Amino acid sequence: MSPDFLFNGPDSAKTTLLLAHGAGGAMDSPAMQALAEVFAAEGLRVARFEFSYMAARRQGTRKPPPKAETLIPEYRAAMAALGVKGKFIIGGKSMGGRIASMIADETQAAGLLCIGYPFHPVGKPEKLRTAHLKHLRKPTLIAQGTRDPFGTRDEVTTYDLSPAIQILWMEDGDHDLRPRKSVSGFTIKNHLASLAREVTEWSSKL
Hints:
The chain is α/β, with parallel strands linked by helices. The protein is built from 7 helices and 7 strands, in the order E-E-H-E-H-H-E-H-E-E-H-E-H-H. Helix 1 crosses helix 7. The longest helix is centred in the C-terminal third of the chain and has 17 residues, at 188-204.
């Protein structure tokens, strides 16, 4: 069964972003919607899709997120169904980006974009999800809040990561990149606008 997509941005865009959602938020969650809108405003085409367990929730069947590895075939199916002929980038938010990172090197994608990568479960910094990131060859951009409970700046800077990975730190951002304005002086609007500009510039060089 082919996934349904939500599209933002011009059909004529030179670059398409294929984005998957996180473990607990659907493809039309406020966070995913905000990301799609800022990327589209920069002229990128954004395609969002949903994994089957999340789609089932819309029909009243509430299933917990399965292990990320088991969703790899669904990500591959979404790529095939989208059928982009031009330049495209795969990725997603949190778990969605993690799944894309597992298959990035075997795809024809120009790059990998992870927004809030879940480097480890919350409260379990010893259970790292980074083994495959050591040898990643695909040009990768990870946007990470400096206080993300799934991987803070102090933690992530000690990891052995591939030189293909570039990390864009969002000051005082949480897992949704949301900062505390009273602490940082930034707003989520500031961070998302900055992220969209960085992604546009980064993707143009791929």
